[in-house]
Amino acid sequence: MSLRSQLLKGILEGCILSIIEKETVYGYELSQKLQQFGLNDVSEGSIYPILLRLQKEGLIKGEMRASPTGPKRKYYQLTIEGEKAIAEFREEWENIQKPVDKLLNRGFNDER
Amino acid sequence: MNAKELIELNNRKRKELTKENEEYYGNMLVYIRASMAVSEQQSEELLMELLDHIIEAQKEGKRAVDIFGENPSAYCDEMIKQLPKESGKSTAYFIVFLLVKLAGLIAVVNGIGDIIIHYFKDNDQTVYVGTAIVTFIIVACIIFLDVVVILKWLQQSVYKVSNKVKDFVLLSFIMTLSILGMIFLPRLLPNFGYVIEVGGFIYLIAGVATLSISKWLDRKYCITK
């Protein structure tokens, strides 16, 4: 896998954890939330392999239960491990975001 | 919800799909179900999630291919890789259950055959226990290999443009080879082990009893869910 797609995957993973941290969601709802936040380029389907991996790593837990509208759906919630992982992600993101922003936004003259 | 209920619900819900989406989803379904090692419960839950997703997205005019992409086999492979494996214990139970059932079926067929033949001539009813057990193991192994081959072929055939004639020839060849193997390999075995006299009726009774017990066990322990 290329570094670029690995990076994007890691970021998407963090975003998914962050949404699940706030509320329990099911698959479709999660994809809608990501789009609402403007992540339109993320193909909807790409969340499912990630959800499976997060479950495998024990960061989230899926549970089939009745939805308010009736049908049973698989709702995801964070485990304690997951809470640790999102805290870590937040920290890593903050460490990387500012320097990258600075790098990308520097004017022509700043470098001299 | 157990796997069986999920499958039934899946069958009902699939009718809500448009023709195009149904075809796309149907292929994913076969591809994921045909992968043997993964937990049935988990893969059915995943399939239900994917189906629910398409049904909701379909209302907004989206197509399955927009959601899951142009390369469904790679997409499915990625998910299959992440799915938990079926536990060794339940796989073992399932295989033992199938073996018992197979033994029962063979006994019934043998019994009926023996009874019919016995009407016409006085056939040999001597059974060498050792030979019989090895014969059974050979038959079971051949059937197991066939199942593996057919499932793999089924999985591949979903997304590969396949040559129907070639596939047919290959599958018939494998089936012929299997049947010949089941008939002729046991003949190479020497007679060994305990010698017992078993008539057709004993075979039949033992077979029916074995099948009934396996059915009862299945109901009690939900082996096939």
UniProtKB/TrEMBL annotation, chain A:
Gene3D superfamilies: Winged helix-like DNA-binding domain superfamily/Winged helix DNA-binding domain. Coiled coil: none annotated. Residues 16-88 form the Transcription regulator PadR N-terminal domain. It comes from the Bacteria. InterPro entries: Metal_resp_DNA-bind_regulator, Tscrpt_reg_PadR_N, WH-like_DNA-bd_sf, WH_DNA-bd_sf. This is PadR family transcriptional regulator.
From TrEMBL, chain B:
It holds the Pfam family DUF1129. The chain crosses the membrane at residues 91-120, 126-148, 168-186, 192-213. Signal peptide: none annotated. Keywords: Membrane, Transmembrane, Transmembrane helix. It comes from the Bacteria. This is DUF1129 family protein. It comes from Neobacillus rhizophilus. The lineage of its organism: Bacteria, Bacillati, Bacillota, Bacilli, Bacillales.
